[in-house]
Amino acid sequence: MRFVPAGTERIFVSGRGNLSDIAELRRQAMAEVDRAADLASLEGVRQRWLGPKGVLTLELRTIGSRPPEERKAFGEAANRLKGEVAERLEARLSALRAAALDLRLAAEREDLTLPPRRVRLGRLHPLTQTIREVSRIFATMGFETVEGPEVEWDHYNFELLNIPQGHPARDKFNTLWISNPLGGDPDRPVLLRTHTSPMQARVMEARKPPIRVIVPGRVYRFEATDAYHESVFFQFEGLAVDDRITMADLKGVLYSFARQMFGGERKIRFRPDYFPFTEPSAEIAIDCFVCGGTGGECRTCGGSGWLEMGGCGMVHPNVLRGVGYDPSKTQGFAFGCGVERIAMLRSGTPDIRLFQQNDLRYLEGF
Ligand code: FA5
Questions:
Q1: Where are the domains of the chain?
Q2: Contact at 8 Å (CB) between 275 and 311?
Q3: How far apart are CA 328 and CA 320, in angstroms?
Q4: Strand ranges across the sheet with 306-315
Q5: Does any ligand 1 atom lie closer than 6 A to the CB of residue 233?
Q6: Taking the alpha carbons of 143, 193, 188, 281 in that order, is the dihedral positive or negative?
Q7: Helix (H, G, I), strand (E, B), or coil: what is residue 274?
Q8: Which of 341, 342, 344, 349 has the most ligand 1 atoms within 8 A of CB, as the residue to mutate?
């Protein structure tokens, strides 16, 4: 057996080793395995000892050329050593892998001390809040909330509401008409609904009395905007139809609504008004809750002491007939109010345009 330098090491190479040399081989192999500091150098050690040209592989090949009396003992010892080295290599491999994994885990560990990103909680838009509150209050009086289309037929928006072609009341609703690019039926004009009242006719057509519904929704008018007017705004319609409904019921329902919405001390005022689809018709106002109805310099009510909420009245007999009801047996009341106006009054919002401007500084106040 000879020694050759390997780096600073001297290792055995194949030769005429004896059993005591096997012990030296073991010491050297084990030391190399234990010193391997990473997976690549461990693989180098494996090749050097167990590879096709490895020290122990070559050593085992010398068995045949040994004296017969040595062969058995030498073969056994060399094979055992081969097994021991393989085992030690496996153990070292597991240890190095575990250490590498520990390092990776330490490097990739979540740093839980990092402050979390702030979650910005959204909230309902003030108009949605107002609509929900309106629906909730009317639900306590037996009204169901329903919704209808914003793109509407002239038939429902005007005709069935007793506003035929050429009726002067059409001018009051500055209408946005929709032209159908596919042609459409010229006798069935389409528009963006100018109020929620077309749902009166739609609900009465679809149901039988008794009816009690609230219809909140967007409406559209070709109007210049100012602090009190939008061209796209919300209304809610109320409709009750039965066989003994009177104006007193209408008054009682709106009075109860005003007190629940604006506080127990509210007064409500009905003044004669005109709508083609109600008869008699009235304008509804509540006494100003800022000045207590005294007016004077009050900016909320403009000094009048009253705040307008909407229009109302008893459903016109022509409307009842138009949907197939008999006015001598069935009566109803209807009202329509502006959602923004109510939201402005409740929150002290000075300009209606603030609702649609998406300015978070304003919206976060709700
Ligand atoms: C109507 O729209 C009727 N359909 C109301 C009605 C229903 C009467 C049922 C009788 C029976 P008027 O155009 O007045 O009426 O509008 C009703 C309410 O909508 C107003 O009182 C106001 O609160 C609101 N409103 C009207 N125009 C605007 C606008 N440009 N911007 C914001 N709110 C508006």
A1: 2-108, 126-363
A2: yes
A3: 10
A4: 144-145, 211-220, 232-242, 331-338, 306-315, 278-287, 268-275
A5: yes
A6: positive
A7: strand
A8: 341
Average per-residue pLDDT for the chain: 89
- What CA–CA distance (Å, rounded) separates 61 from 59? 5
The closest residue, in CA terms, to atom 30 on ligand 1 is: 229
Q: Which amino acid is at 91?
A: A
Give the residue whose CA is nearest to atom 32 of ligand 1: 229
Which has the closest alpha carbon to 225: 132, 343, 351? 351
Hey, what are 357's tokens?
């401007």
Q: 195: which DSSP letter?
A: S
Distance 72 CA to ligand 1 centre (A): 112
Q: Whose CA is nearest to atom 21 of ligand 1?
A: 310
Q: Output phi, psi for 192, to 5 deg.
A: -90, 125
pLDDT of 7 above 80 = no
* pLDDT, position 332: 98
Q: SS3 for 205?
A: helix
Q: What is the pLDDT of residue 5?
A: 41
**Percent of the chain beyond pLDDT 70?**
94
Angle at alpha carbon of residue 244, lines to 342 and 238, rounded to 5°: 20
Beta-bridge partner residues of 235? 217, 338
DSSP state letter for 166: T
Residue 230: CB within 6 Å of ligand 1? yes
Give the model confidence (pLDDT) of 275-301 as tens digits.
Answer: 999 999 999 998 887 788 888 888 777
Ligand 1 centroid distance, CA of 234 (Å):
9
Give the distance (Å) from ligand 1 centre to CA of residue 174.
Answer: 12
Query: Cβ atoms within 10 A of the Cβ of 54, count?
Result: 19
Phi and psi, residue 208, nearest 5°: -110, 150
Closest ligand 1 atom to Cα of 230: 31
Burial of 152 (0-12, 13-18, 19+ CB in 10 A): buried
Residue 271 DSSP symbol? E
Q: Which fold has domain 126-363?
A: BirA Bifunctional Protein; domain 2 (3.30.930)
Instruction: Please give the model's pTM, rounded to 2 decimal places.
Output: 0.70
